[in-house]
Amino acid sequence: MFYWVDGDGMADVSLTGLPPQFAAEYAARMEQADPSNVHRLVATGASVTHFSRPRPEFSRDALVFGGFLNRYGAVDVIDLLFRAGGDAVAGIGIIKMRGDAAAGKVELAQARAIQRFVEFGLQGHERVLNRLRPGRAMRAYRLTRREWEIADMAAQGVANREIAARLGLSTHTVKSHLLHVFCKTGSANRTALAAKLYL
After folding, report:
1. Residue 146 domain-assigned?
2. What is the mean pLDDT of residues 174-179?
3. How many domains does the chain have?
4. I need a labelling partner for 182 at 20 to 30 A (CA). Which of 98, 129, 147, 163 fits?
5. Model's pTM, two decimal places?
C-alpha cells in the first residue's frame, strides 16, 4: 500500500494485492486503532515500524486493529514513512498475508535501507517540491505567509483584482504586498518572480 501524506493524514492510497474495501474500511474505522498510523509515526518520529499478531497484553486499539487485519488474511505490517523538509510526505505499508514468511530481522533491516533510499528519491518528486516550495521561498526571501500567497498567485499570472477577491483584500493592499515581495526577492516583474519561485 502506497499513500501520500496531506497534512498528517493519508491521501491517494494505492493498493496492490488487497481488495479496495481494505483501504475504505481502514480509512472509515481502523486508522485510529492502527498502532502505526500516520499520526503516531509523525508524533514519535519513527520511519520504520512493525506490527505483528497482537497478544492479549496489547492495547485495546492494537487488538481491534489485529482483528481487522485478520479478517483480510493479513498477519504482519511493516510501515515506512518518508519525510522531506521535516514533514511526512508519503508512506508504504508492506502487508504480509497468511502463508507469507513472517517479517524477521533481515526484512526489517531491508525495510530501513529501502526507507532511506525511497525517502531520498522522493525529494525531487514534483508533488513533494510543490509542498515544500512555500516554506523554502518564505525562508529564502523572508516572506510572510500572506506575501507568499500573493507572490504565488502573481507568479502564476493572476491579476491583482482577482488576488484581492480570492483573499478578501483591497487591491491597494495586494499591490503593497507585491511591492514588498518584489523588493525582497529582487524581482523586477511577475515573470522574474515566477523564475525565482519555481525554478
Report:
1. yes
2. 96
3. 2
4. 129
5. 0.73
